[in-house]
Amino acid sequence: MSDNAKSFEIQKRRGLIVWVYSLKQLKNLRRYGFVHYVSNQMKYVVLYVNEEDIEKSIEKLKRLHFVRNVDISHYPDIDMDFGDKIGTQAAFQVTESIGDHSAE
């Protein structure tokens, strides 16, 4: 590859849970971010927004008349390294089967 080729940079994104009164205005929500999931029964939309635009997007979404509430996803804030919490020996423990007849 040449040095002047554009490099792909991953955008930091955050999920927003947008609670709505009605899903009739779903097309209007598409202009604020990427619609990932729509729950017809519980009337919420999971919307992905760029991390740097999140505050402006929340303010704009809360001003809409059909939006009940906006919640921020806390998934990126969760520490997913569980090795220290359960111990590395317990995490990689291997048990031998009792009925192993491979030596016969």
UniProtKB/TrEMBL annotation:
The keyword Cytoplasm applies. InterPro entries: DUF2129 (IPR016979). Keywords: Cytoplasm. Its main location: cytoplasm. It comes from the Bacteria. It is found in: Cytoplasm. HAMAP family: UPF0298 (MF_01126). Belongs to the UPF0298 family. This is UPF0298 protein GCM10019998_19200. It comes from Tetragenococcus solitarius.
